[in-house]
Amino acid sequence: MKSLIIFVFLLILPAEAFRPTLLLGNLIERTCRQTPFYDLCVWSLKTNPESRNADVKKLARIMVDSVLKNKATDTLDLIDELLQDGFALDPALHKALSSCAERYSVIIGGDVPEIIEALETGDYKFAERGTNDAAMEANSCEVEFPGKSPLTHMNKVVHDVSVVAASIVKIILHSQW
Amino acid sequence: MADTNPFLPKSSSDGSHLTGSQATRRRPVKEQLTIFFGLLAVGLFAALLIGKNGSYNAHVHENKHGSLATSTTKKPETLRPVSRGPAAGVSEKSNRLSAKVDGNLLAYPWNNSMLSWQRTAFHFQPEKNWMNDPNGPLFYKGWYHFFYQYNPNAAVWGDIVWGHAVSKDMIHWLHLPLAMVADQWYDVNGVWTGSATILPDGKVVMLYTGSTVEAVQVQNLAYPADPNDPLLINWVKYPGNPVLVPPPGIDKMDFRDPTTAWLTSEGKWRITIGSKINKTGIALIYDTTDFINYERLDGALHAVPGTGMWECVDFFPVSKTEENGLETSVNGPGVKHVVKASLDDDRHDYYAIGTYHEKNGTWIPDQPEIDVGIGIRYDYGIFYAAKTFYDENKNRRVLWGWIGESDSEAADVQKGWASLQSIPRTILFDNKTGTHLLQWPVEEIESLRLKSNEFNQVTLQAGTVVPLDVGSATQLDIIAEFVIDKEALGKATGSNETFSCGSSGGATERGALGPFGLLVLADESLSEQTPVYFYIAKGYDGNLKTFFCNDESRSSAASDVNKQIYGSFVPVLEGENLSLRMLVDHSIIESFAQGGRTVITSRVYPTKAIYGAAKVFLFNNATEASVTASLKIWQMNSAFIRPYPNNEKF
């Protein structure tokens, strides 16, 4: 009898080692498949330790509070650097950079807090609004440059992360549960 | 190497495991240990494999700074009040970052002149910051009271508390101190939407949703601290709050926005609260005698599958015959009841007309195919979280609706405010169609009318634009009637193409019998313009269908504003001319077709058609029909909405 119990326990043990990883992969993958940027979505979430055992709401929160906020902050840092360099000599460029700085300040100080509060209190339409706005601010920044934009890559990252976040919020908003 | 198949059938060591003799027990233990470590090794090996497959290359995250962002947060920069760079490009709906398009789109920076023009002259808005849902409107001791969702700290949604204002005429508002703030555990995460009930003895009772410290949505009771204060400045929250918590089967975040209460035949008070079960929107029903203890009725007032969460549910009677409003408890043979819900899923307000069955607290729509959430909307533009109240002062039912912004939040932050309320509208049952309600701006708005210009029987040939000289054109009240050439109506060939405002090409898409109407907030060269118009579609069977649209696609040179085309089919009955009323007030346009049968509210943010450069035109873009228009256009005064004068006692 003891041997039977031990044997059953041994059968379960490796299954336990497998199961969390499989399910974790599944929810993130399932969620990210419903966004337009699967690879970005999966990588952003899987490399964040908080995504372990997270539900969809938590995944949305991670995408916004960690990924979007960090990427937007990095972009704002870059803009500040560029404004201080000689880059800013061209008045049109300076204008565009200043406008972008304002937009990114709003993403970080306006959109992100709005989205987080909406996710936490369950008034999801404001989370959708904030994520859509963040994507639009990044896009608007990009098109403000008369010539070549020095922020193309960062704007695309922030835009795409925002769109991913908006898609995840949409999943929550239209959820069946 | 370890055993690679942990799920080997028992047969290899079966006999030894199952026999119970002492002598054979020692061998199985050793075997079991081998199996144990074997499985462990396999498990670890497999976990390692999976872990490696799960990591992605860092190519997605090339970063000029060389490293992935850390999780430490940087304090957000304070906003710099700088002018914006040139703006041109794609709509916010796009999923791809598009390259700069349309070299013809000149770059316009948002400057302070453009942004400050956007503030309205006679629509309710606080002095600054964010507003959303209308709350607890009521008439008390000679004053109209209006409360609203407000963020005292920013021009985006968050930190929600109750703002408050009063007026003698629902037009000239005076701001008062905040009525309620988030100072209790049961509303610390948001003092959300609620409604007022006036008891037969004149007492005021307020029910509102609080988001608790754990973000649970609960219903709370509040009442005026001093019933003798006509301004109702101070409010008391019932010490035993919350009075209602989410019932079993209802998610703790799907339970909000209690309605005004109405009396049942048993003398109890009844309220409804919106929620959802799976994807079915639902209006829960509760009875109470004291507003403190509630009994939930089985089932619901009504539910509609597929509509999602019902926010800001409203329930009220309308008279089938009389041109006045009905107090919320009224019932009887000449009465129909309206159920309205704000759908969280699509941010639109829907209503339906039906019959209320008082005994079991249910309501059945007259026409299930246009049930709540799948049928008629209050407004085909921006209009949400609407709420009515019975105005006992003038015996009418009045509707408030939240009008959000459709520009970028960065612009809202820069200009320091976001959102408006609609001009309050009277609500009447449209007994000509039997399916619609009629909405009309309250008559008190007419007190703002200044000088007027009349244009009689202006004939617009197909394909013409006629300027109307009215002077300043940013604050207007317009009443217009259009008659389309009868012969052209008859001669036009029908088609089976279905038309919809939203998917059409806007005012430039020419049909035989439309579009025709007005261009407002248009500059001289028409580089910026907002057409509001009728479009008549003729079917194969010769039937005419009229549509009413508001086209924002060329409303502004800026790229970071909404450029949609709003609108809907509008019922036009035999013998009716096409009629239109418009209130233009800087960045808001409210348009009413056929006496308010179909309404469109839109927000526009022109960069050039502002101040003295804004003009009004008549236009007829039909290909085969001429149209005759008669209009009266008034300049509108400001309502001078401001704080309640300091020298008055509080």
Question: Please, could you describe this protein's structure?
Answer:
The complex is a heterodimer of chains A (177) and B (650). Chain A is mainly α. Chain A is 80% helix and 0% strand. Chain A is built from six helices and no strands. In chain A, helix 1 (2-33) packs across helix 2 and helix 4 runs antiparallel to helix 5 (125-142). Chain A is elongated, with a radius of gyration of 21 Å. With 650 residues, chain B is mainly beta. In chain B, 9% of the residues lie in helices and 39% in strands. Chains A and B meet through helix 1, helix 2, helix 3, helix 4 and helix 5 of A and helix 2 and helix 4 of B.
* Overall shape of chain A: elongated
Derived from helix and strand composition plus strand pairing, the structural class of chain A reads mainly alpha
Q: What is the CATH topology descriptor of chain A?
A: Butyryl-CoA Dehydrogenase, subunit A, domain 3
- Count of helical stretches of chain B: 5
Low-confidence stretches of chain B: 1-25, 51-108
Assign the CATH class of the domain at 454-636 in chain B: Mainly Beta
Instruction: Please tell me how large the radius of gyration of chain B is.
Output: 31 Å
Strand content of chain B: 35-45%
Radius of gyration of chain A: 21 Å
**What is the overall number of helices of chain A?**
6
In total, how many beta strands of chain A? 0
The CATH architecture of the domain at 454-636 in chain B would be Sandwich
> Which class best fits the helix and strand makeup of chain B?
mainly beta
In helices, the fraction of residues of chain B equals: under 10%
Beginning-to-end CA distance, first to last residue of chain A: 43 Å
Q: Which pair has the most extensive contact?
A: A-B, 83 and 86 residues
CATH superfamily of the domain at 454-636 in chain B: Exo-inulinase, domain 1
CATH-level-2 architecture of chain A: Up-down Bundle
CATH class type of chain A: Mainly Alpha
